[in-house]
């Protein structure tokens, strides 16, 4: 058996190098897709993209014979690698935990954040905002869209609640005499995760004319793109919606509901971070299997289906 295997490898010739090269590309693409699945925030993706550009620039400077520039870029790459390991420690921790538990399938499956449709969570939010606006009670709701927010983006994480979303609970939290009414409330899926959250304020010049809640809504949506904020003004009762650092106001109840329904799809998939990459990996994987089958003399899938 061993002699037959050696003879088969010798007979492959150039096909062996082609097969190994194709396998190498497939593994690199699979690893890239796995990293993009783990790292879902666009802000983090820009960080990874910048690191890759820095690595390419370092390699190019070395090839062009620029020793001083190459030396500087190499040191920058090392420093950035350490900084990214610190900044992405939660993502790497999750990756290592899944790898250690043998959950290889989950590494290639995008996390899905189920967002109930308008007849459940969105209705509860809209009804609560309607009552808060009518009574001129200030409120700030953070609603996650494409994945969990890292608590390090908050100035103060707040108090854990883990309660079902309901209009009664939202109104109770923001009553002026409660301990949590001054902070923001975080909604993840159909759960109220925490309340009393203190958010970083936006530093934009235009936002300084706004109240603290509006500036906080703009600040967190500037830092984190996978969330939106609903704000109720304590002075006027007006309703605002913050997305990616932009404040849309004033909104009617009808417009708020339409906006939430448009922004919160029933299922948000991290695969959108790298659209087409998984299908590209599958196509390459299919061609690799076809090549291996042809080299081994095995019937292809298409021929088996014809039979």
Automatic annotation (TrEMBL):
SUPFAM superfamilies for this protein: YojJ-like
GO molecular-function term, one example from the UniProt record: ATP binding
GO annotation terms (biological process): cAMP biosynthetic process
Domain DAC stretches: 89-253
Catalytic activity as recorded in UniProt: 2 ATP = 3',3'-c-di-AMP + 2 diphosphate
Record-annotated membrane-spanning stretches: 20-39, 46-62
PROSITE patterns: DAC (PS51794)
Keyword annotations from UniProtKB, A to Z: ATP-binding, Cell inner membrane, Cell membrane, Membrane, Nucleotide-binding, Nucleotidyltransferase, Transferase, Transmembrane, Transmembrane helix
EC number(s) per entry: 2.7.7.85
UniProt-listed InterPro entries: C-di-AMP_synthase, CdaA, DisA, DNA_integrity_DisA_N_sf, DNA_integrity_scan_DisA_N
Subunit structure: Probably a homodimer.
Cited HAMAP family: DacA
Sequence similarity: Belongs to the adenylate cyclase family. DacA/CdaA subfamily.
Job description of the protein: Catalyzes the condensation of 2 ATP molecules into cyclic di-AMP (c-di-AMP), a second messenger used to regulate differing processes in different bacteria.
Full protein name: Diadenylate cyclase
Record lineage: Bacteria, Bacillati, Cyanobacteriota, Cyanophyceae, Nostocales
The gene coding this protein: dacA
């Amino acid at each position: 058996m061993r002699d037959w295997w050696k003879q088969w490898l010798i007979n492959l010739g150039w096909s062996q190098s082609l097969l190994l090269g194709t396998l190498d590309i497939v593994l690199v693409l699979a690893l890239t897709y796995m990293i993009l699945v783990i790292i879902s925030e666009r802000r983090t993706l820009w960080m990874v993209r910048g690191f890759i550009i820095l690595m390419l620039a370092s390699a190019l400077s070395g090839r062009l014979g620029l020793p001083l520039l190459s030396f500087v870029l190499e040191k920058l790459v090392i420093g950035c690698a350490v900084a990214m390991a610190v900044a992405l420690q939660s993502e790497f921790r999750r990756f290592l935990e899944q790898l250690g538990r043998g959950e290889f399938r989950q590494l290639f499956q995008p996390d899905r954040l189920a967002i109930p449709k308008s007849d459940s969570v969105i209705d509860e939010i809209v009804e609560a905002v309607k009552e808060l606006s009518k009574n001129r009670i200030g409120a700030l709701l953070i609603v996650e869209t494409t994945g969990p927010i890292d608590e390090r983006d908050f100035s103060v994480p707040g108090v854990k609640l883990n309660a079902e979303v309901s209009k009664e609970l939202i109104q109770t939290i923001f009553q002026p005499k409660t301990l949590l009414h001054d902070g923001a409330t975080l909604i993840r899926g159909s759960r109220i995760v925490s309340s009393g959250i203190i958010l970083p304020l936006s530093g934009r010049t235009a936002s300084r004319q706004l109240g603290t809640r509006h500036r906080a809504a703009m600040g967190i949506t500037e830092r984190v793109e996978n969330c939106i904020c609903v704000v109720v003004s304590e002075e006027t009762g007006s309703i605002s919606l913050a997305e990616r650092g932009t404040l849309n106001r004033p909104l009617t109840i009808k417009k708020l509901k339409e906006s939430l329904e448009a922004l919160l799809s029933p299922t948000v998939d991290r695969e959108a971070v790298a659209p087409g990459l998984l299908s590209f990996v599958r196509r390459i994987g299919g061609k690799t299997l076809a090549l291996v089958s042809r080299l081994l003399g095995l019937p292809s899938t298409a021929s088996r289906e014809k039979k």
